[in-house]
Amino acid sequence: MLSPQAATDRAADLVARAKVAGADAADAVYVASASEGIQVRLGRLEDVERSEGEQIGLRVFVGNRSASIGSSDLTPAALNELAERAVAMARAAPEDRFAGLAPQDMLAQGPFPDFDAFDPVDPGAETLRAVAEEAEEAARAVAGVTNSDGASASAGFSVFALATSHGFAGGYHGSSHSVSASVVAGEGAEKQRDSAWRHTRHRADLPSPAEIGTLAGDRAVARLKPARVRSGQMPVVFDPRVSSSIVGHLIGAMSGGAIARRSSFLLDKLDAQLFDPSLLIVDDPHKPRGVRSRPFDGEGLPTSPRNLVENGRLTGWLMDSAAARQLGGVPTGHAVRGSGGAPGISVGNVHLAAGAVTREALIADIREGILVTELIGQGVNGVTGDYSRGASGFRIVDGVIAGPVAEFTVAGNLLAMFAQMTPANDLEWHRPINVPTLRIDGMTVAGD
């Protein structure tokens, strides 16, 4: 794996080769990663995985025609062949009047900020194994846990670099550390499974393995002997484990590409009052040690914190350069790149601001409702906003969380759900999208 500077130089070299081969414009990305993971089960080592890889991708433009190509061979001869093939492909491609590099006057300028996203310490296989063993031991020690799906610990490092033919060159690196546990509670037909995990940039920010394991065990035991729930309309409360997915659907619908294709349920909703005026959703790609922090986007534009929803209204679409040209706007610094293909859209570290009441107060007036802790399936229509997903969780009876329930469906429409959304004050800060407990009134629950 190259250093960020060496990776940037390699990407810039490939861009220069593309220009020599006949490209009018080009950009190149270098993506590399290395990771090691250990999995144990029932106190024994079950799997050791080590992976390393690096790829370089080239996108070239010949007039309004473009092509993308990638390779894991970074030798000079291979890069020359890559550039020549990409230019030949572009000349045979159809014209696209929206294709092109990002506006030159908007490019990010170095030196780039450091968000403390890189932890250079490699814990090594023995330490990772000890972490996984401790997590599983704690999970299996919970009364009622009868079996284990295993526990794991991993550490990884990555490098990303981008260079363009119109003046941008930059790179950065990052690290990741994780621990997880999954166990089974109960016997025979009454078995239930649950898990816990945590992922951070720095190993020091991880909870103790015992904390993760105990949480996994407690969750599995709490699910034992689930009842069925009656069908009807009622308040549904989404636990932070799953509430982030609702904001994820919002972000996907805010993509400029979806708006340009007219395939988003937010079409024509830019000025509408979608949420309660007090609700705030923030995108912060500059959060120190954030799992999605980055100084520039996949086109070389600077990233910056931004409110996605303010006073209950959308603040605009999320656009790369191609979407901005189609919509008559400007790119927003949300382009993301892999080692091949055109840019996509991605946010940084997102959070929905905490509400003013505790989780207990949020449910205190619910006579009959559901707390959802797990969602199943992909029943969300991004065009219409129709929402229907399998779920499990707990009953809420007279303002108190009662027993576990399973095998039911929660349904509604995302626009109506947004309008009825009320957050609690239990915001956590360890996910890419951080959302507190959410209460949504008037949803349809389909059970017995």
Automatic annotation (TrEMBL):
Q: Which residues form the Metalloprotease TldD/E N-terminal domain?
A: 26-90
Residues forming the Metalloprotease TldD/E central domain are: 119-224
Instruction: Indicate the segments forming the Metalloprotease TldD/E C-terminal domain, all copies.
Output: 231-447
User: Superkingdom of this entry's organism?
Assistant: Bacteria
Q: Which family does it belong to?
A: Belongs to the peptidase U62 family.
Indicate what this protein is called per its UniProt record: Metallopeptidase TldD-related protein
Q: Which organism is it from?
A: Novosphingobium kalidii
